[in-house]
Amino acid sequence: MRSAWDTTVRGRAAAWLGVLVVGSAVLPACSDSGAKSAPPPSGTGTPQPSETPGPATHPFNGGTKGLDNPVLAVKIENTRPALPQSGVKSADIVYVEQVEGGETRLMAIYSSRLPKRVGPVRSARISDLHILPQFGRPAFAFSGVQSKMKKYIRKAPLYDISQENAGGAYVRSGARHIPYNLYADPKNLLKRAPKAAKPRDIGFRFGDAPDGGTPTRSFTARWPAATMGFTWSAKEKRWLASWGGRPDLAAEGGRLGGRTVVVQYAKTTRSKFHDFLGSYTPLIHTTGTGRALVLRDGKSYKARWSRPSEDKGTAFTTADGKPMTFAPGQVWVLLVNDGKPYTP
Question: What's the rounded Cα separation, in Å, for the pair 191 and 119?
Fold first, then answer.
């Protein structure tokens, strides 16, 4: 099995974790669900360079390129007016998260390579601040947030390169209407965050497929008002994405999709935030343990996920407790409610 993180870099990981300052408030500051969990960790420290050798393969995709590149997260619209999206094909990891009204939004993670343009860029959500601490202190690009959430952004261990702080890296396209026409230049974005974290172990393991698995032609993930399907292509050796039953195309050409698709079942509750229509923002609980379904190489594998705290990565294991290895390449993580589709 090829590990995305060599044991010789444990010291480096420990050094990075040591600069994170975890907030002491409890989750009710973000949620009215009553569930006990820490709020987004706060971080004032800056990761320090280490002389320890870096990982042998990229911890986000199992590849060998861009091992020392900074980490950039971008919030991207994922509704029909936004399609086709730009830059998603180049992401190492694509998270699909539920937002208000049962729709979804993407958070794309870049490190090994950058696209020329990414978007449509949209606003951040509270669940992003619970997902991102495992990446250290990455750069985070988004169009903005509601006023009540700004204090959480300021306290979070990330570099805020939103449109408000890095306006010169963003541009409005005349080909689309607001709010679906905001795009950003990733290289320009990272110039605004020169100390953004480098790649670190987030729990993923890459290598040969584990024993077993069920031959699977396609899978459809469902949210209250959205669906995304993934169909195995033996020719392209990846899962081809669809949105709402139609091929999910990339603005650069071709079809979106990944070598590995992770369906992570996570409890979804109501946060204290809501949009101007009164629809509450879901809070996706991504720490603890839960079940998952991993799609790779034309098969599906029942798995478990475990994330002990927000500054730690998410480990995936098979039914017999062994590491659930991913196929090297782009990884999609579909965060769906553990149960039926649910609008909090």
Answer: 18
Preceding amide of 120 cis, omega within 30: yes
Model confidence over 254-272: pLDDT tens digits?
A: 999 999 999 999 999 999 9
216 touches 295 (CB < 8 A): yes
Token pair listed for 241: 């994405």
- Cα torsion for 281, 308, 199, 201, to the nearest 10°? -140
Separation of CA 281 from chain center: 17
CA distance 177 to 157: 33
Side-chain-side CA neighbours of residue 298 (13 Å):
6
pLDDT tens for each residue of 321-341: 999 999 999 999 999 999 999
Measure the CA–CA gap between 257 and 255, rounded to whole angstroms. Answer: 7
Cα 171 versus chain centre, distance: 23
One-letter identity of residue 20:
L
pLDDT of the residue at 12: 39
Where does the pLDDT of residue 276 fall: very low under 50, low under 70, confident under 90, or very high at 90 and above? Answer: confident
Q: Domains of the chain by range and CATH?
A: 56-191 (3.50.90.10), 214-337 (3.50.90.10)
Reading the block at residue 39, the tokens are 């709020």
Whether 227 has a pLDDT exceeding 70, the answer reads: yes
**What's the average model confidence in pLDDT over 19-31?**
37
How are beta strands 182-184 and 170-172 bridged, if at all? Answer: antiparallel
Q: 184 near 121, Cβ under 8 Å? A: yes
